[in-house]
Amino acid sequence: MPVSGVPRLKSGKKGAKMIRVLYLVIAILAFVELYSVGVTLLAKKLGEKDYKRCLIPFYAFYVVNRITGGFNVLTIPVKKYHSMVAILSVLSVLATVYACWGDTHLPVESAPSLWQIMGVILGLCALLFWLSIIASSTKIYRRFNVKKDKLALWLSALVITTPVLYAYYAKKNEPRSLKDMY
User: Fold this and answer.
1) What is the mean predicted confidence (pLDDT) over 132-152?
2) What is the sign of the dihedral through the CA atoms of 3, 20, 29 and 89?
3) CA-CA distance, 15 to 147, in Å (whole number)?
4) Do 174 and 148 touch, CB atoms closer than 8 A?
5) pTM: predicted TM-score of the whole model, two decimal places
6) Residue 73, SS3?
7) Higher model confidence: residue 129 or residue 149?
8) Beta-ladder partners of 173
């Protein structure tokens, strides 16, 4: 027992929790890069200058905002999609790091409660990100005049298929201007 008399978790578990943080960061960055490839192909098809900049992490979300002309998530207008995604990503990492900190600095009885609270924050971040992917994809499919847009939207709900669909429709369909979408 430590000097304070409060039992702490063993250091072996601390390493396992930090691996979770590393996995979370890698997963976020891997998806952002995969998404960026799909958006790069969309931007190229639309004739965006500097479309290669989409491969810079989180810049693709800025381009999606320009391509869609903005969209709503749960009736809330998203004006700066790239900022929203960056904030959600940082918040997810911070919540995980804080919960890991709690494992080593809080009593054994309190650490699981902190993980539950941080799990709610992680869940909300994931839900908002998922809904924003669906909302932006809806406008992108409308702009690219996708005939089976309901099927594409259901596939986009899987999130990981979204960049592949973007690449497919960028190659197959001709885009409309923002004015012609409505």
Assistant:
1) 85
2) negative
3) 49
4) no
5) 0.79
6) strand
7) 129
8) none
